[in-house]
Structure formats: C-alpha cells, structure tokens
Amino acid sequence: MADRPNVKGEFDESMRIGAPAARVFDFVSKVQNLPKYLPTTRNAVPEQGGRVRVQGQAEGRAYDADGYLRADREHLRLEWGADERHYKGSLEVMPRGKQASEVRVHLSFSGDESARNEGNDGPSPEQVKEGIRDALRSIENHVTGRGGKVEPRAGSER
C-alpha cells in the first residue's frame, strides 16, 4: 500500500481457506489486524468516519497514507482506497460449506503521474500479484492458527 504507486491495472486473486467465512471476515475487517496480513503495512490506525491511516515501507521508501475502509458485514465485503483516487480495492469472503471459505481480492491501480515524473517506477505487476498472494496466505495462517504474516521476500520488496 505505497502512498503513490505508479503501477496501472486490475489484479484479482482468490484462495480457499479452511475456516468459516464469519471468522475470516471478523479477522480481516479489524483495522488493527491490517499489519498482520498486508505485506508492506507496519501500522494501521482507525480514524473517524470509516477512515484509516496506514504506515509502512514499500519500494524501499517509508509511507504514511490516509484512506477509507468500509466493511459490509452483511455481504462479507471490504472496500478501501487512497484519497488520491489512484488506488482502490475490495476483499470478499464467500462461504464454502460450514468450515471453509473463499477469499477474493481485487485491486485497481490507475497510476500516479507525479510518481512517474519523479522516477518512481513502483512495483511490477508480478510483485502486486505476489503481494496479494502473500496477504491471502497470511490471512489463512492467522485464522487457522497455523502461523503469522508472510513477509515480503528479500529482493522482492514491494
């Protein structure tokens, strides 16, 4: 979640998780849990009005960004985005029986012209996909009790 990504495109990944959908959604929808599964996020603080402030490091640079986070418990869906409107995403949890679920993540990047002008190439499409997969594995680890956050691999820092 760099504050000014330069990547463009739409990205979708999903994963089946051996935990009930309600448990998965309860975990992912708590702002304080964002650093437990988002690869580059180190701190997340809820703010008034469905707002959130996240801090971390991506592409070798620290970031401190504000945005929105909306949780729709009835539909087990999260939506978020950056104030600058160059980045948004959603996460949907779908029941797959009583003890399993599927988590689908969609990210949309429109790019940031000012970041491009400053020579910030941002993550590659493969790094974005890898970050989503790492987040999904981290969610699985936490909700099944089999581990914690999957950290970005050395040399592939996002």
Question: If you had to describe this structure to a student in words, what would you say it looks like?
Answer:
- It is a single chain.
- With 158 residues, this protein is an alpha+beta fold.
- It has one domain (8-144): Alpha-D-Glucose-1,6-Bisphosphate, Chain A, domain 4, CATH 3.30.530.
- Helices cover 23% and strands 39% of the residues.
- It has four helices and seven strands; from the N terminus they run βααββββββαα.
- The chain has helices spanning 21-28, 34-37, 113-117, 125-144; strands at 8-17, 41-47, 51-58, 61-72, 77-82, 87-95, 101-110.
- The chain has a seven-stranded antiparallel beta sheet.
- Helix 1 (21-28) crosses helix 4.
- It is globular.
- The protein starts with 7 loop residues before the first strand and ends in a 14-residue tail after the last helix.
- Residues 1-5 have low confidence and may be disordered.
